[in-house]
Specification:
Elements: E1 2-7, H1 11-22, H2 24-31, E2 35-41, E3 55-56, H3 59-63, E4 68-73, H4 81-90, E5 94-97, H5 100-116, E6 121-122, H6 134-140, E7 146-152, H7 155-167, H8 171-180, H9 188-192, H10 195-209, E8 219-220, H11 228-236, E9 240-250, E10 253-263, E11 276-283, E12 287-294, H12 298-314, E13 338-346, H13 351-355, E14 358-362, E15 370-375, E16 378-379, H14 380-387, E17 393-399
Parallel strand pairs: 1-2, 1-4, 2-3, 4-5, 5-6, 8-10, 10-17
Antiparallel strand pairs: 7-9, 7-11, 9-10, 11-12, 13-15, 13-16, 13-17, 14-15
Helix pairs in contact: 1-12, 2-12, 4-5, 5-10, 7-8
Bound molecules: L-homoserine (HSE).
L-homoserine binds at residues 129, 154-156, 183, 185, 191, 196, 295-296.
Length: 400
Protein backbone atom coordinates (compact mmCIF):
# COMPACT_ATOMS: atom_id res chain seq x y z
CA UNK A 1 0.00 0.00 0.00
CA UNK A 2 1.30 3.43 -0.99
CA UNK A 3 -0.02 6.48 0.84
CA UNK A 4 -0.55 9.80 -0.85
CA UNK A 5 -1.24 13.34 0.36
CA UNK A 6 -2.91 15.84 -1.95
CA UNK A 7 -2.02 19.51 -1.40
CA UNK A 8 -4.95 21.63 -2.59
CA UNK A 9 -8.58 20.55 -3.01
CA UNK A 10 -9.47 22.79 -5.93
CA UNK A 11 -10.45 21.64 -9.42
CA UNK A 12 -7.38 19.46 -9.99
CA UNK A 13 -7.02 18.21 -6.40
CA UNK A 14 -10.63 17.06 -6.22
CA UNK A 15 -10.16 15.47 -9.66
CA UNK A 16 -7.13 13.50 -8.42
CA UNK A 17 -9.03 12.24 -5.35
CA UNK A 18 -12.00 11.33 -7.58
CA UNK A 19 -9.87 9.44 -10.13
CA UNK A 20 -7.98 7.54 -7.41
CA UNK A 21 -11.37 6.40 -6.07
CA UNK A 22 -13.25 5.74 -9.30
CA UNK A 23 -10.28 4.10 -11.08
CA UNK A 24 -9.02 2.21 -8.02
CA UNK A 25 -8.69 -1.16 -9.79
CA UNK A 26 -6.79 0.10 -12.81
CA UNK A 27 -4.50 2.20 -10.59
CA UNK A 28 -3.76 -0.81 -8.35
CA UNK A 29 -3.06 -2.99 -11.37
CA UNK A 30 -0.69 -0.49 -12.96
CA UNK A 31 1.04 0.59 -9.74
CA UNK A 32 1.35 -3.01 -8.54
CA UNK A 33 0.02 -1.88 -5.16
CA UNK A 34 -2.96 -0.07 -3.70
CA UNK A 35 -2.80 3.73 -3.60
CA UNK A 36 -4.63 5.40 -0.73
CA UNK A 37 -5.16 9.12 -0.12
CA UNK A 38 -4.21 9.60 3.54
CA UNK A 39 -4.49 13.40 3.66
CA UNK A 40 -5.87 16.34 1.72
CA UNK A 41 -4.44 19.73 2.63
CA UNK A 42 -6.49 22.88 2.12
CA UNK A 43 -7.06 26.12 3.98
CA UNK A 44 -10.81 25.69 3.55
CA UNK A 45 -13.26 23.27 5.17
CA UNK A 46 -15.57 21.13 3.03
CA UNK A 47 -18.56 20.31 5.23
CA UNK A 48 -20.46 17.28 3.95
CA UNK A 49 -17.72 16.24 1.49
CA UNK A 50 -16.29 12.76 2.21
CA UNK A 51 -12.83 14.41 2.07
CA UNK A 52 -13.66 16.02 5.46
CA UNK A 53 -12.37 12.92 7.27
CA UNK A 54 -8.88 13.25 5.82
CA UNK A 55 -8.71 17.04 5.54
CA UNK A 56 -5.83 18.77 7.34
CA UNK A 57 -4.78 22.42 7.51
CA UNK A 58 -1.25 21.85 8.74
CA UNK A 59 1.37 20.89 6.15
CA UNK A 60 3.88 19.82 8.83
CA UNK A 61 1.59 16.94 9.79
CA UNK A 62 1.82 15.56 6.26
CA UNK A 63 5.50 16.00 5.59
CA UNK A 64 6.49 14.57 8.99
CA UNK A 65 4.30 11.49 8.65
CA UNK A 66 6.62 8.61 7.69
CA UNK A 67 3.67 6.74 6.16
CA UNK A 68 3.25 9.32 3.38
CA UNK A 69 5.22 8.22 0.31
CA UNK A 70 3.93 10.61 -2.36
CA UNK A 71 2.92 14.25 -2.13
CA UNK A 72 0.72 15.62 -4.92
CA UNK A 73 1.08 19.39 -5.23
CA UNK A 74 -1.94 20.85 -7.03
CA UNK A 75 -2.28 24.16 -5.18
CA UNK A 76 -0.91 26.32 -7.99
CA UNK A 77 1.23 29.44 -7.63
CA UNK A 78 4.87 29.41 -6.61
CA UNK A 79 4.64 30.18 -2.89
CA UNK A 80 4.22 28.26 -0.67
CA UNK A 81 4.18 25.47 -3.32
CA UNK A 82 7.97 25.75 -3.79
CA UNK A 83 8.73 25.65 -0.05
CA UNK A 84 6.39 22.68 0.49
CA UNK A 85 7.72 20.69 -2.47
CA UNK A 86 11.37 21.34 -1.67
CA UNK A 87 10.87 20.37 1.97
CA UNK A 88 9.04 17.18 0.93
CA UNK A 89 11.83 16.14 -1.47
CA UNK A 90 14.53 16.90 1.10
CA UNK A 91 12.64 14.68 3.56
CA UNK A 92 12.69 11.85 1.01
CA UNK A 93 9.12 12.04 -0.27
CA UNK A 94 8.19 11.65 -3.92
CA UNK A 95 6.36 14.65 -5.37
CA UNK A 96 4.25 15.16 -8.46
CA UNK A 97 2.62 18.37 -9.58
CA UNK A 98 0.44 20.00 -12.24
CA UNK A 99 1.86 23.42 -11.37
CA UNK A 100 3.53 24.98 -14.44
CA UNK A 101 4.51 28.14 -12.57
CA UNK A 102 6.45 26.02 -10.06
CA UNK A 103 8.00 23.81 -12.74
CA UNK A 104 8.94 26.71 -15.05
CA UNK A 105 10.67 28.60 -12.26
CA UNK A 106 12.19 25.84 -10.11
CA UNK A 107 12.10 22.67 -12.27
CA UNK A 108 15.86 22.01 -12.62
CA UNK A 109 16.51 22.61 -8.89
CA UNK A 110 13.67 20.29 -7.78
CA UNK A 111 14.72 17.59 -10.28
CA UNK A 112 18.25 17.78 -8.84
CA UNK A 113 17.08 17.43 -5.23
CA UNK A 114 14.89 14.45 -6.18
CA UNK A 115 17.93 12.79 -7.76
CA UNK A 116 20.11 13.42 -4.71
CA UNK A 117 17.45 11.93 -2.43
CA UNK A 118 16.69 8.95 -4.73
CA UNK A 119 13.06 9.96 -5.09
CA UNK A 120 11.09 11.55 -7.95
CA UNK A 121 9.75 14.91 -8.96
CA UNK A 122 7.31 14.39 -11.86
CA UNK A 123 5.19 17.00 -13.65
CA UNK A 124 3.39 15.49 -16.65
CA UNK A 125 0.28 17.63 -16.09
CA UNK A 126 2.18 20.92 -16.06
CA UNK A 127 2.09 21.23 -19.86
CA UNK A 128 -0.82 20.26 -22.10
CA UNK A 129 -3.08 19.18 -19.19
CA UNK A 130 -3.99 15.58 -19.95
CA UNK A 131 -1.92 15.33 -23.15
CA UNK A 132 1.13 13.12 -22.61
CA UNK A 133 4.00 15.32 -23.73
CA UNK A 134 6.62 15.49 -20.94
CA UNK A 135 7.10 11.72 -20.73
CA UNK A 136 7.32 11.31 -24.54
CA UNK A 137 9.93 14.10 -24.71
CA UNK A 138 12.01 12.56 -21.92
CA UNK A 139 11.63 8.89 -22.77
CA UNK A 140 10.76 8.45 -26.44
CA UNK A 141 11.91 11.48 -28.39
CA UNK A 142 15.47 11.52 -27.13
CA UNK A 143 17.25 10.63 -30.36
CA UNK A 144 15.96 13.35 -32.67
CA UNK A 145 17.20 16.90 -32.85
CA UNK A 146 14.06 19.02 -32.90
CA UNK A 147 14.27 22.08 -35.09
CA UNK A 148 10.81 23.35 -34.23
CA UNK A 149 8.33 22.97 -31.38
CA UNK A 150 5.09 24.83 -31.91
CA UNK A 151 2.21 24.64 -29.49
CA UNK A 152 -1.23 25.94 -28.78
CA UNK A 153 -0.58 25.61 -25.07
CA UNK A 154 -3.28 27.69 -23.45
CA UNK A 155 -6.87 26.48 -23.58
CA UNK A 156 -8.45 29.74 -22.42
CA UNK A 157 -6.97 31.89 -25.17
CA UNK A 158 -7.70 29.22 -27.74
CA UNK A 159 -11.31 29.22 -26.59
CA UNK A 160 -11.45 33.03 -26.86
CA UNK A 161 -9.90 33.12 -30.33
CA UNK A 162 -12.15 30.29 -31.56
CA UNK A 163 -15.21 32.09 -30.22
CA UNK A 164 -14.16 35.34 -31.93
CA UNK A 165 -13.57 33.47 -35.21
CA UNK A 166 -16.84 31.49 -35.08
CA UNK A 167 -19.18 34.17 -33.76
CA UNK A 168 -17.57 37.42 -34.82
CA UNK A 169 -17.57 38.90 -31.32
CA UNK A 170 -15.02 41.07 -29.56
CA UNK A 171 -12.15 39.92 -27.34
CA UNK A 172 -13.91 41.30 -24.24
CA UNK A 173 -17.13 39.38 -24.94
CA UNK A 174 -15.28 36.12 -25.53
CA UNK A 175 -13.16 36.61 -22.37
CA UNK A 176 -16.34 37.06 -20.31
CA UNK A 177 -17.68 33.76 -21.65
CA UNK A 178 -14.39 32.00 -20.92
CA UNK A 179 -14.55 33.31 -17.36
CA UNK A 180 -18.19 32.26 -16.95
CA UNK A 181 -17.25 28.74 -18.05
CA UNK A 182 -14.40 28.67 -15.52
CA UNK A 183 -11.63 28.37 -18.14
CA UNK A 184 -9.69 31.53 -17.36
CA UNK A 185 -7.28 31.42 -14.41
CA UNK A 186 -8.14 33.50 -11.32
CA UNK A 187 -6.01 36.24 -12.86
CA UNK A 188 -6.91 36.23 -16.58
CA UNK A 189 -3.66 38.04 -17.32
CA UNK A 190 -1.68 34.78 -17.00
CA UNK A 191 -3.73 33.40 -19.88
CA UNK A 192 -4.55 36.36 -22.12
CA UNK A 193 -1.17 38.09 -21.84
CA UNK A 194 0.64 34.90 -22.81
CA UNK A 195 2.50 34.12 -19.55
CA UNK A 196 0.90 30.70 -19.08
CA UNK A 197 1.85 29.68 -22.64
CA UNK A 198 5.34 31.13 -22.10
CA UNK A 199 5.90 28.99 -19.00
CA UNK A 200 4.76 25.91 -20.91
CA UNK A 201 6.91 26.44 -24.04
CA UNK A 202 9.85 27.21 -21.71
CA UNK A 203 9.34 23.90 -19.87
CA UNK A 204 9.05 21.90 -23.12
CA UNK A 205 12.01 23.57 -24.79
CA UNK A 206 14.19 23.41 -21.67
CA UNK A 207 13.54 19.66 -21.39
CA UNK A 208 14.25 19.19 -25.10
CA UNK A 209 17.72 20.65 -24.64
CA UNK A 210 18.24 19.43 -21.04
CA UNK A 211 18.86 23.02 -19.93
CA UNK A 212 16.98 25.77 -18.17
CA UNK A 213 14.98 28.14 -20.34
CA UNK A 214 13.98 31.13 -18.21
CA UNK A 215 10.52 32.09 -19.50
CA UNK A 216 11.07 35.69 -18.43
CA UNK A 217 13.67 36.02 -21.17
CA UNK A 218 11.13 35.30 -23.90
CA UNK A 219 9.39 37.71 -26.16
CA UNK A 220 5.77 37.34 -24.96
CA UNK A 221 2.79 38.86 -26.74
CA UNK A 222 -0.75 38.04 -25.65
CA UNK A 223 -4.11 38.35 -27.43
CA UNK A 224 -5.74 41.39 -25.80
CA UNK A 225 -5.07 43.51 -28.88
CA UNK A 226 -6.62 41.07 -31.36
CA UNK A 227 -9.82 42.67 -32.61
CA UNK A 228 -12.90 41.58 -34.49
CA UNK A 229 -11.48 43.50 -37.49
CA UNK A 230 -8.21 41.46 -37.40
CA UNK A 231 -10.32 38.31 -37.27
CA UNK A 232 -12.40 39.43 -40.27
CA UNK A 233 -9.23 39.96 -42.34
CA UNK A 234 -7.86 36.59 -41.16
CA UNK A 235 -11.05 34.89 -42.36
CA UNK A 236 -10.86 36.67 -45.71
CA UNK A 237 -7.27 35.44 -46.05
CA UNK A 238 -8.43 31.86 -45.27
CA UNK A 239 -6.60 31.88 -41.96
CA UNK A 240 -7.27 31.66 -38.23
CA UNK A 241 -5.46 33.51 -35.45
CA UNK A 242 -3.87 31.25 -32.81
CA UNK A 243 -1.67 32.05 -29.81
CA UNK A 244 1.47 30.01 -30.47
CA UNK A 245 4.43 29.17 -28.27
CA UNK A 246 7.28 28.46 -30.68
CA UNK A 247 10.87 27.35 -30.34
CA UNK A 248 13.05 27.24 -33.44
CA UNK A 249 16.44 25.57 -33.41
CA UNK A 250 18.16 26.66 -36.60
CA UNK A 251 21.61 25.09 -36.77
CA UNK A 252 21.94 25.30 -32.99
CA UNK A 253 20.64 28.86 -32.73
CA UNK A 254 17.57 28.73 -30.48
CA UNK A 255 14.80 31.28 -30.59
CA UNK A 256 11.61 31.08 -28.51
CA UNK A 257 8.57 33.31 -28.39
CA UNK A 258 4.87 33.45 -27.60
CA UNK A 259 2.73 35.49 -29.97
CA UNK A 260 -0.54 35.36 -31.87
CA UNK A 261 -0.07 34.17 -35.46
CA UNK A 262 -2.28 33.86 -38.50
CA UNK A 263 -2.10 30.27 -39.71
CA UNK A 264 -3.73 28.59 -42.71
CA UNK A 265 -5.32 25.15 -43.15
CA UNK A 266 -1.97 23.68 -44.24
CA UNK A 267 -0.75 24.17 -40.66
CA UNK A 268 -1.42 21.15 -38.43
CA UNK A 269 -2.58 23.40 -35.59
CA UNK A 270 -5.28 25.08 -37.70
CA UNK A 271 -8.01 22.70 -36.52
CA UNK A 272 -7.01 22.78 -32.85
CA UNK A 273 -10.00 24.79 -31.62
CA UNK A 274 -11.91 25.64 -28.44
CA UNK A 275 -10.11 24.74 -25.19
CA UNK A 276 -8.07 22.03 -26.87
CA UNK A 277 -4.25 22.15 -26.99
CA UNK A 278 -1.99 20.92 -29.76
CA UNK A 279 1.78 20.55 -29.94
CA UNK A 280 3.68 19.94 -33.16
CA UNK A 281 7.28 18.75 -33.05
CA UNK A 282 9.56 18.69 -36.07
CA UNK A 283 12.55 16.39 -35.69
CA UNK A 284 15.42 15.50 -37.98
CA UNK A 285 14.66 11.75 -37.89
CA UNK A 286 11.02 11.46 -36.94
CA UNK A 287 9.76 14.29 -39.12
CA UNK A 288 6.54 15.92 -37.92
CA UNK A 289 4.69 14.63 -34.86
CA UNK A 290 1.51 16.04 -33.45
CA UNK A 291 0.07 15.80 -29.94
CA UNK A 292 -3.56 16.84 -29.50
CA UNK A 293 -6.09 16.78 -26.70
CA UNK A 294 -7.55 18.32 -23.58
CA UNK A 295 -5.07 20.89 -22.33
CA UNK A 296 -7.01 21.78 -19.21
CA UNK A 297 -9.93 20.61 -17.10
CA UNK A 298 -10.48 18.53 -14.00
CA UNK A 299 -10.44 14.93 -15.20
CA UNK A 300 -7.96 15.24 -18.12
CA UNK A 301 -5.44 16.95 -15.84
CA UNK A 302 -6.12 14.46 -13.04
CA UNK A 303 -5.47 11.65 -15.53
CA UNK A 304 -1.94 12.99 -16.09
CA UNK A 305 -1.31 13.57 -12.38
CA UNK A 306 -2.45 10.04 -11.48
CA UNK A 307 -0.14 8.61 -14.16
CA UNK A 308 2.73 10.33 -12.28
CA UNK A 309 1.47 8.89 -8.97
CA UNK A 310 1.54 5.41 -10.55
CA UNK A 311 5.10 5.93 -11.83
CA UNK A 312 6.21 7.10 -8.40
CA UNK A 313 4.43 4.23 -6.63
CA UNK A 314 6.48 1.87 -8.80
CA UNK A 315 9.75 3.74 -8.13
CA UNK A 316 9.41 4.94 -4.54
CA UNK A 317 13.13 4.83 -3.79
CA UNK A 318 14.55 4.86 -7.33
CA UNK A 319 15.06 8.10 -9.16
CA UNK A 320 13.74 8.04 -12.73
CA UNK A 321 16.44 10.12 -14.46
CA UNK A 322 15.41 13.48 -15.90
CA UNK A 323 18.15 15.40 -17.68
CA UNK A 324 17.39 19.02 -16.86
CA UNK A 325 20.34 21.06 -15.66
CA UNK A 326 20.23 24.66 -14.48
CA UNK A 327 22.64 25.67 -17.24
CA UNK A 328 20.78 28.39 -19.17
CA UNK A 329 19.63 28.00 -22.76
CA UNK A 330 21.18 30.90 -24.67
CA UNK A 331 18.51 32.41 -26.88
CA UNK A 332 19.18 34.09 -30.21
CA UNK A 333 18.25 37.74 -30.50
CA UNK A 334 14.77 38.42 -31.77
CA UNK A 335 16.11 40.58 -34.58
CA UNK A 336 17.61 37.52 -36.28
CA UNK A 337 14.33 35.60 -36.34
CA UNK A 338 12.23 35.64 -39.54
CA UNK A 339 8.49 36.05 -40.02
CA UNK A 340 5.84 37.34 -42.40
CA UNK A 341 3.67 40.15 -41.08
CA UNK A 342 0.02 41.13 -41.48
CA UNK A 343 -0.25 44.93 -41.15
CA UNK A 344 -3.44 47.04 -41.11
CA UNK A 345 -2.99 50.72 -41.89
CA UNK A 346 -4.99 53.90 -42.60
CA UNK A 347 -6.42 53.91 -46.13
CA UNK A 348 -4.44 57.00 -47.15
CA UNK A 349 -1.12 55.62 -45.85
CA UNK A 350 0.43 54.52 -49.15
CA UNK A 351 3.98 54.35 -47.87
CA UNK A 352 3.52 50.84 -46.51
CA UNK A 353 3.30 49.55 -50.09
CA UNK A 354 6.72 50.97 -50.92
CA UNK A 355 8.41 49.92 -47.69
CA UNK A 356 7.80 46.17 -47.90
CA UNK A 357 7.83 43.32 -50.39
CA UNK A 358 4.19 42.33 -50.33
CA UNK A 359 2.55 38.95 -50.77
CA UNK A 360 -0.98 40.30 -50.55
CA UNK A 361 -2.92 43.53 -50.31
CA UNK A 362 -6.48 43.36 -48.95
CA UNK A 363 -9.32 45.83 -48.80
CA UNK A 364 -12.59 44.81 -47.15
CA UNK A 365 -15.86 46.62 -47.99
CA UNK A 366 -16.80 46.86 -44.29
CA UNK A 367 -13.66 48.82 -43.46
CA UNK A 368 -13.48 51.68 -45.96
CA UNK A 369 -10.97 53.80 -44.04
CA UNK A 370 -8.18 51.20 -43.96
CA UNK A 371 -6.49 48.35 -45.82
CA UNK A 372 -4.11 45.53 -44.92
CA UNK A 373 -1.03 43.85 -46.36
CA UNK A 374 0.76 40.57 -45.83
CA UNK A 375 4.50 41.03 -46.26
CA UNK A 376 7.08 38.60 -47.59
CA UNK A 377 9.26 36.91 -44.96
CA UNK A 378 11.95 39.07 -43.35
CA UNK A 379 13.90 39.27 -40.12
CA UNK A 380 12.45 41.17 -37.18
CA UNK A 381 15.40 43.56 -37.41
CA UNK A 382 14.45 44.41 -41.00
CA UNK A 383 10.79 44.69 -40.05
CA UNK A 384 11.38 47.14 -37.20
CA UNK A 385 13.68 49.23 -39.35
CA UNK A 386 11.15 49.44 -42.19
CA UNK A 387 7.96 49.93 -40.20
CA UNK A 388 9.40 52.99 -38.41
CA UNK A 389 6.88 55.26 -36.75
CA UNK A 390 3.62 53.34 -36.23
CA UNK A 391 1.37 56.39 -36.37
CA UNK A 392 -0.73 55.07 -39.27
CA UNK A 393 -0.51 51.41 -38.29
CA UNK A 394 -3.64 49.90 -36.73
CA UNK A 395 -2.56 46.35 -36.10
CA UNK A 396 0.31 43.90 -36.66
CA UNK A 397 0.04 40.11 -36.45
CA UNK A 398 2.69 37.58 -37.44
CA UNK A 399 1.80 35.20 -40.27
CA UNK A 400 3.17 31.66 -40.17
N1 LIG B 1 -5.34 28.33 -17.75
C1 LIG B 1 -4.74 27.19 -18.37
C2 LIG B 1 -5.27 27.10 -19.79
C3 LIG B 1 -5.06 25.95 -17.59
O1 LIG B 1 -6.23 27.81 -20.11
O2 LIG B 1 -4.72 26.37 -20.60
C4 LIG B 1 -4.23 24.74 -17.94
O3 LIG B 1 -2.87 24.94 -17.69
Amino acid sequence: MVKVAVLGYGTIGSGVVEVLNTSRDIVTRNAGTEVEVKYVLDLRDFPGDPVEKILVHDYARIVNDPEVDIIVEVMGGTHPAYEFVKDALLKGKNVCTSNKALVAEFGPELVKIAKEKSVNFLFEASVGGGIPIIRPILRSLNVDTFYEITGILNGTTNYILTKMYDEGGSFEEALKEAQALGYAEADPSADVDGFDAARKIAILSGLMYGKNLDFEQLSIEGIRHISKIDMDYAKFLGKKIKLLGITYNINGEIYTEVAPHMIGPENKLYNVDDVKNGIELKGNLLGDTMFYGAGAGKLPTASAVVSDIIDEAKHLHTNIPILWSDEPVILAERGRHKSKFFIRVDRNYDEIKNKFDLEQLVTLPDYQDEYAVVTAEMTFAEFYEKIGNKEHVRSIVQVK
